[in-house]
Amino acid sequence: MREAGGPWLRRRPAGRARREPRPLARAVARLVVRAADGATRLVTDLLGASPAAGRERISEAELRDLVAANTVLDADERRIIDEVLVAGASLVREVMMPRTEVVFLSVAMTVVEAERLVRAETHRRYPVVDGTHDDVVGFVHLRDVLLRPDLDPGTTVGELTREVKRLPGSKRVLAALTEMRREGHHLAVVVDEYGGTAGIVTCEDLIEELVGEIHDEHDGDPEPEPAGLPAVVDGRLNLADFAERTGVRLAAGPYETASGYVMAALGRLPAVGDEVPVAPAAADGGDRDPDDPPGGWLLRVLALEGRRVSRLSVAAVRLPEPRREVTAPLSAAESRPAGPS
Fold first, then answer.
1. Residue 184 — left, alpha, or beta (φ > 0 → left; ψ -120 to 50 → alpha)?
2. CA-to-CA distance for 241 and 169, rounded, in angstroms?
3. Distance, CA of 21 to CA of 19 (rounded, Å)
4. Residue 178 CA to chain centroid, in angstroms?
5. Residue bearing the bigger pLDDT, 293 or 289
6. In this protein, which residues make up the domain named CBS (predicted)?
7. Sign of the dihedral through C-alpha 309, 220, 92, 128
8. d(CA 190, CA 167)
9. CB of 278 within 8 A of CB of 248?
10. Residue 161 in contact with residue 128, Cβ under 8 Å?
11. Angle at 117 between CA 112 and CA 121, to 5 degrees
């Protein structure tokens, strides 16, 4: 078989040590490579072309098909890659902590006041605001408040504030994680389309969306969440997690969570005891899934947290059984055939 380098390729004698290039040779090589790269860019710019113009583009669906058809990867590896691709297409606003659940610190708050507040919470990083929650100026770490004995008690949180990253809520999870890791950020403020604060997201939130829940030694044992119905779920579940947990697919709309679906279906703020029927969704072919209950499902509001649904029960609707008409047996006289008179 012919060598890739051709018959003119010189071989190094066996046993002969490979010589490392000297610093001068490495410097000259770097200059040559940079000059060649710059010349290539200059020529392509003059010609109006792009260096990546000849590269073949591949869609996410094609990439997933290639992974599914790959015979080198085993079934578990293909499943993991497919789940990462699917989860990576989720949006940041679907995995963020909404602003209503974020603990904000004010720039004017002293470290003594901040210490009392953070000791009662379980977070490590806290956004700092100057005015309203839409005016986030940075964040402070738990260590900044608790592990700085040299600080003057009159020091304000504003003096300890670090720079915070901002991400649009429409950014995809995988792209957001890549960007935050590259720039060294652990927390980002999620900004909505109007420029206001929609919530916050951490690298851990993004990673958990890709690989599943991560529990450390400080977390309690997670409560088992059996799938299937009937079920009681958190209203904060996004539509995908709600479908995975209950098997019920809620229609997409101007909401991200099961609580938002209930509010949109009611057309008003929910109250405890409100019920929302969910009709079985049609499959891609237009036919109903035979596994879905004929009567659909019923969502019932069990508890509220402020104006938001915090606990929600989900159960299949049982249609009333058709009534059977029972006919009384005929008497002997009635059952005797009529004879000639």
1. left
2. 18
3. 6
4. 14
5. 293
6. 96-156, 160-217
7. positive
8. 5
9. yes
10. yes
11. 140
Q: Which residue has the tokens 């290539």?
A: 40
CATH of region 229-314, choose from 3.40.50.300, 3.30.465.10, 2.30.33.40, 1.10.8.60:
3.30.465.10
Whether residue 303 contacts residue 312, with contact meaning beta carbons closer than 8 Å, is answered with no
E strands present in the chain: 97-98, 105-106, 125-129, 136-141, 165-168, 187-191, 197-202, 231-234, 275-278, 297-305, 308-316
* Confidence (pLDDT) at 128: 96
Rounded to two decimals, what is the model's pTM? Answer: 0.63
Secondary structure letter of residue 7 according to DSSP: T
Non-local CB neighbours of 248 within 8 Å, separated by 6+ positions: 229, 242, 278, 297, 314
Tokens 């606003």 -> residue: 93
Residues 124 and 102: beta-carbon distance below 8 Å: no
Nearest to 173 by CA among 209, 216, 142: 209
Q: Which CATH architecture best describes the domain 90-209?
A: Roll (3.10)
Which pLDDT tens digit goes with each residue over 78-114?
777 777 777 767 889 988 999 989 999 999 999 999 9
Look at the block and give the residue holding tokens 């890791």: 181
Whether residue 334 is predicted with pLDDT greater than 90 in this model: the reply is no
* Token duo for residue 48: 């109006």
| Residues 207, 224: Cα–Cα separation, whole Å | 21
Q: Per-residue confidence at 277, pLDDT binned at 50, 70, 90?
A: very high
Domain-wise residue ranges, the chain: 58-87, 90-209, 229-314
